[in-house]
Amino acid sequence: MERLIEYLSLIAIASTCIPYWRARTAVQRTTLISAWRWGGVGLTVWMVAAAGQILAAETHRGIVQLVWYAAALLMLCPAIAVLGAQRPVTRVWSWFIVLPFLLVFGWPAAATGSQTLANGEFLLQTPMVVGYAFVVVMGLGNYLGTRFTIAAALTAGALLLVVAPTASAEFSWLPETDLCRLLATLILIAAIWWATYVARPTYAVRVPLDRVWIEFRDQFGIVWSKRVLDRLNLMAQGDQLSLRMSLIGVTSVDNSDAPPTTSELAAMERSLRWLLRRFVDEAWIDRQLRLGNDSSA
Known about the structure:
This protein is mostly helical and 297 residues long. It has helices at residues 2-15, 17-22, 24-27, 33-55, 61-82, 90-111, 113-119, 126-140, 149-163, 177-198, 208-238, 262-276, 282-295, and strands at 243-246, 249-252. It is built from 13 helices and two strands, in the order αααααααααααββαα. Strand 1 and strand 2 form a beta hairpin. Keywords: Membrane, Transmembrane, Transmembrane helix. The chain crosses the membrane at residues 6-23, 35-54, 66-85, 92-110, 122-141, 148-167, 179-199.
């Protein structure tokens, strides 16, 4: 029965390539394209690891162990890439942040590679596991409070299920390593399909500018949203506008329900466009405004 589930999980993880490829259209005109590319590499290596888990001979178990670890590292790279998704930093972020992350956390695998290939077991020092968990929380925690909260939490759980069993300290509460990886694959599948489902906006907005903001918040996460939000509200205050931006959209200073004036919305839109130029193209903003106009309540 477990073998059947493994084969089904392999088919299911392969099926996630379809929605993942389609997600490229959502990030095409943004600085998130780098994160998307890292995710594509990570997903591919994950599928190789899942296939190796089923098909590889026992003598190749060491190789499978290392591929699983590589998959866990690469699948975390998109979340790290998002934290540097600002022009012009995004051009060098992969070289100076993401690749060093891979080198630092990949070094134990390189250093003990021959031993792992010989005995079929890969062990990671517990401090490295703790450090990896910290990066998981830091990277995927960026999406807590967005509509991708559940997908981020599931992905975090999947990554930790792959890496935790490799710790030199024994966690007695964990299932056996092979079962952990099977569960991790099933959880990652759920995360990708859930993210695909919630990525389709079904909400109504009060003004089209809300759509621009909510899409930026959910795609780039809370870290960038908070920084842009603070600067946008400072600019609105300097322009003596009665409008402010909150995490859920445009609001008034006095919290009144009166609709904002066209002139004030235009002023806030100009400021938001100026701030978002480091993250997205003008065409992306124009598209969100059109969609927001169609869904405005």
